[in-house]
Amino acid sequence: MKRFLTVVFLLLSFGGVAFAQEVAPAAPVVSVEQDYHLGVADKVRILVYDEPTLSGEFLVNANGSISMSLIGDVRAQGRTASDVAEEIRAKLADGYIRAPKVSIDVLSFRPYYILGEVKKPGQYPYSSGLTVLNAVATAEGFSYRAGRKFVYVKRAGELKEQKIRLEASTLVSPGDTIRIGERFF
Questions:
Q1: Which one of 11, 65, 68, 180 has the largest count of C-beta atoms within 10 Å of its C-beta?
Q2: Quick count: other Cβ atoms within 10 Å of Cβ 104?
């Protein structure tokens, strides 16, 4: 009997290894689409190849610009990173550097804001793929008076907030203001 149990144990132990399935690799980090428009408080890394003194990390200032040595201010607000990189390239090529190569990466996005019936309303850092429910969780959840059917979202650059049905897939964008309303009963 002991021998039988030993054989069964060994078969189960090694059988589990033989039939184990490979774990799928982690999903790649999702980046914001190429058409993301820069705004105030976005932090970017600008690389001018073979020119370390011009490369570095820059913040889009309150005027919506990035200040660089040699070429001065470059308007960034409302433009894509590739558009800004092309303007920097053109300005550097205009008498400063022959055939410059410029790339821009967004390091951190402008924050989003959550207001209303959450436990800790305020400003929070944006991360790619953020949903309204993630934002509520970051603000430590709904208050006891929170309405949980609709949410009000004011997108960056828009004047009016939109009333949106609260769903798990509702995405937040950098600079959004989310307001959780009060329920009536």
A1: 180
A2: 21
Q: What is the mean pLDDT of each run of 10 residues along the chain (185 residues)?
A: 52 47 31 74 95 94 94 95 96 92 94 96 93 95 93 90 90 94 85
What sign results for the dihedral spanned by CA atoms 118, 122, 125, 130?
positive
Burial 121-144 (b: 16+ CB within 10 A, else e): beebebbeebebbbbbebbeebbe
Structure tokens at 94: 């205009």
Which CATH number is associated with domain 112-180?
3.10.560.10
Residues 6+ apart with CB under 8 A from 121: 114, 115, 139
To the nearest 10°, report the CA torsion of 107, 35, 37, 126. Answer: -50
Does domain 43-108 correspond to CATH entry 3.30.1950.10?
A: yes
Q: Taking a C-beta distance cutoff of 8 angstroms, is the pair 180, 147 a contact?
A: yes
* DSSP 8-state assignment for residue 31: P
Q: b vs e for 77-94, b when ≥16 Cβ sit within 10 Å of the residue's Cβ?
A: bebbbeebbebbbebbee
**pTM, two decimal places:** 0.68
